UniProtKB/TrEMBL annotation:
Keywords: Repeat, Riboflavin biosynthesis, Transferase. It comes from the Bacteria. It catalyses: 2 6,7-dimethyl-8-(1-D-ribityl)lumazine + H(+) = 5-amino-6-(D-ribitylamino)uracil + riboflavin. Pathway: Cofactor biosynthesis; riboflavin biosynthesis; riboflavin from 2-hydroxy-3-oxobutyl phosphate and 5-amino-6-(D-ribitylamino)uracil: step 2/2. Residues 1-96, 97-193 form the Lumazine-binding domain. This is Riboflavin synthase. It comes from Siminovitchia sediminis. Catalyzes the dismutation of two molecules of 6,7-dimethyl-8-ribityllumazine, resulting in the formation of riboflavin and 5-amino-6-(D-ribitylamino)uracil. The lineage of its organism: Bacteria, Bacillati, Bacillota, Bacilli, Bacillales. SUPFAM superfamilies: Riboflavin synthase domain-like.
Length: 214
């Protein structure tokens, strides 16, 4: 489990590719301070398992499903990546619940500066529409963000100066893909509604039955 608060920007130093999978080697510092074999690290929002490490790098395997459904396959030597360690049980929870299981990718359509903020329009797949709402949470390349606008197949997010400097998002170009993880709570609610054939409306009785209220 992650929070979507990026700890460090790492650099890809090598990729050992196969047809539909690869092993990635990433240079980092902060996230390696307490690393152990088998630890989970989110790379651009994708939960990967550490299989080897040194003082300045770690290695992880990217499986065919991850290769197919995320933008990691487009990385190359020199690429910058967002990095976050799994959430510590005794730490503060600063973002929102992020699993590291990416739902798919979107495309950067537009970037616009508004005083100290950077607005970004991101095109999302149609199947994502039921899970997004204004002021709702979303993880873009592993970064916890708030949705400020929705129009047809596009969502708008706003990057504060800290996010601009401490993540890779501000450096994205128009047309670049980004990994998207939809809000976990929205997915669970949608799933429960879909499996409830008799009650399609969210009523007080429905919320009590599902444990949301007592």
């Amino acid at each position: 489990m992650f929070t979507g608060i990026i700890e460090e920007i790492g650099t890809v130093i090598r990729i050992d590719r196969k047809a539909k999978s690869f092993t990635i080697h990433i240079q980092a510092h902060t996230i390696l301070e307490d690393v152990r074999l088998g630890d989970s690290i989110a790379v651009n929002g994708v939960c990967l398992t550490v299989t080897d490490f040194s003082r300045s790098m770690f290695q992880a395997d990217v499986m065919p499903e991850t290769f197919k459904s995320t933008s990691l396959r487009l990385l190359s030597s020199g690429s910058k990546v967002n990095l976050e360690r799994a959430m510590a049980a005794n730490g503060r929870f600063g973002g929102h619940f992020v699993s590291g299981h990416v739902d798919g990718t979107g495309l950067v359509l537009n970037k616009k500066r508004m005083e100290n903020a950077l607005y970004m329009d991101i095109q999302i797949p149609e199947v994502f529409h039921p899970y997004v709402m204004e002021k709702g949470s979303i993880a873009i390349d592993g970064t916890s963000l708030t949705i400020f606008g929705i129009e047809k197949d596009t969502i708008t997010i706003s990057l504060v100066p800290h996010t601009q400097s401490e993540t890779i998002l501000a450096e994205k170009n128009l047309g670049d893909p980004v990994n998207i993880e939809l809000d976990m709570l929205a997915k669970y609610v949608r799933r429960m509604l879909g499996s409830n054939q008799e009650k399609q409306e969210i009523t007080m009785d429905f919320l009590t039955e599902k444990g949301f209220i007592k």
